[in-house]
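Render this sequence as a predicted structure.
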Amino acid sequence: QAWLHVRPGSGIRRGKMAAIKVRQDLPPPGGYGPVDYKRNIPRRGPSGYSMFGIGIGILMFGYWRLFKWNRERRRLQIEDLEARVAMLPLLHAEQDRRFLRLLRENLEEEAKIMKDVPGWKVGESVYHSNRWLHPPVEELFNLRPQEEYVREKYGFQWYV
């Protein structure tokens, strides 16, 4: 025997199940309609192939701009190089004039310092040869202030 268990005070008495009329939930006459279980996502945006094509197009445009800029940059570098080559004789002439000015000032200072030494010839080479030797930086800037010598010898190395 199956007994129906109900809460006390609900107004239903205990008894056999057959005694209680139970209404069962049934489908409507003719049955339920079809259940839509497939994914129905709306299409949004371009397809994968078109996205791939757009990406390839953007890459091609970027490479085209890159090659175009590299050609322009190379042209500008060649122009700068040609300008430097054109200015090179002027820069050498300036360097030679500066060198000659330093030599003249050194000779004048040597004449002042060695005026009391008998037999001293100003500007005479200490190397016993007729060949021209470019004087080292130390010799050129020996009679100059220390800052000029240091700037001449180590000037570009300080920026590295």
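Summary. The radius of gyration is 52 Å. Helices lie at 48-113, 137-140, 146-154.
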